[in-house]
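Entries read sequence, tokenised fold; example below:

***
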Amino acid sequence: MYKTTFSHVCFFSRHVFIVMLSVFISACSWKSDKELTTPGNLDGIHYPLSNSGANGGDSVFTAGEQEPQNIITSDIKLLYINTAPFQFYDYARLNTYKSGLIKLELFKYGNTIGSIRIKAGRMCVLTECSYKWPISKKFFGAVSYGGLFEDIMFARDIFGGKGKQVGPNGIVVQRFQQSGEMIYYERSPGHTLFKNMTTGVTIGLDDYNPLSIGNGINNSLAIPQ
């Protein structure tokens, strides 16, 4: 009986040791991940330096990732963000790349001030980079999930299409209550508005159309209501 008990103890101890070793290895690999170690890096995600870095180019991506031939889509937007950690109210360029990178380049008075980037399950807002879920929770609060910001940027259904209603002229509205908070999410061609009516967290996104004589377009940065 003593031998049996001793064997069980050894088996249990060995099992605990293996589990702890696995956790330790995972933690170390997370810390050594270059996408998450970003001291002094404006845009968050870090890759090995490319030759363009010496010439003042963007050196935070793998070589050639942002070359024009690798762009899938590129659109200028009028962007409004009102969240606890980050506020923005100006123009932005939304690019998607063959590598899977999504980059929202932010402008202030015509100058680049940084970007929001999403890639490989991670999200970076200016200098802060982490997995999608913690960043999303900082942005939206308790009523959120990892891909919420990305879904809003591309006018997709959120929260599984909860409360979805399709109206005339291509207007889609989701109005629902989640964890005691009221959410309003509206989409129409060229326009997206997300608003947490309880907390005031708001993201507005509109297509930017270059002005030309007689085109009847009025690009406005009016704050979404």
